[in-house]
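Bumping with the actual sequence this time:
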Amino acid sequence: MILPPKSNFFLMAKLNLKGLSQSAIERYVVSIGEPKYRAAQIYQWLYKYRESSFEDMTNLPVPLRQKLSESAEIEQFPVSTFQTSKMDGTVKFLYELSDGKKIETVLIPPRTTAVDADERMTLCVSTQIGCALDCKFCATASMGFIRNLSTGEILNQYLTAQANSEKPITNIVFMGMGEPMLNYDNVMSAVDILTDQNGIGLSPKRITLSTAGYANHIRKMADEDRKIKLALSLHSLRSEVRAELMPITKKFEVEDLLAALEYYNKKTKKSVMLEYIVFEGVNDTEQDVQLLVKASRRLDCRVNLIPFHSIEFTNPQGYSAGLHGASKEGVEKFWQQLRSHDVITFIRHSAGVDIDAACGQLAVKEERLLVNH
């Protein structure tokens, strides 16, 4: 972060501290004539104690708190609306950003039968407003790409959801709106603060980043020895099918993705998760099973079969209009075929099916309401 000259600082807009690293806060406090060690105190107030008022940062001298109030701010997220599932307690937040744009975050409790039902609470976080990748099964794709979220906007999704949750949030999945790898620097800056024991303090083993397939950034994560988990939104290992479902395949071929995952395995010694929506008549053939079996023998991975959430409300055209999720029986058959070949496979159940809990549903509907009015 490059700060303006001290003489001009107070003529400019207030600096938002939310999202800044401790080193960036150090540069800021020095620029306003304060000792560097004050940065560690402010950093902990922001993230460890989650304080939103300078006045309540009680170990800071009153003159410093006054100076902070004059030159800086702590951005907050107003909740535009939220929906709570009567079936499983899933909560979907719609946040309004400072520029009026809206993003979604979903708080997902575990199933009551889960062994860690009393301990786990998962938050699904967005990284962009809209998305440029045009995946044919995703509601967010219908918005197009608007902009990346800042580090502070990513962190605020967690901080606001935690403030509205009776239970501690233990797990974070970057599986909301947008492609995390296209906002790599801001996402990783947020991860650093989320996992810093002087910051928010979550375990990196409880954070998962899902990508549509940026092989270059998968290798980058490996080279940087990132401790968080990696998931690939796969959906087919047949290049022609995956290219129809996910146009990014034209840039990063299936073999390139597998090679990147293999590199990630060897470099980090960590497994990866392959996410797979079973579409009726599209990617549910014996050939698809065999390709997944072959990939699982090449990679240290597991396969998550995930449900398809209808995007009918977006009025899909062309290829998207013909996509239908496999029946429950079809998914179970696919699962059994993989299991019979010793592929580690799970069927992921839908959360919040009675609300707009799938990625993009609530934000797209809100956007269309604004356009129509």
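The tokens above came from a reply further down the thread. The CA atoms of residues 129 and 146 lie 5 Å apart.
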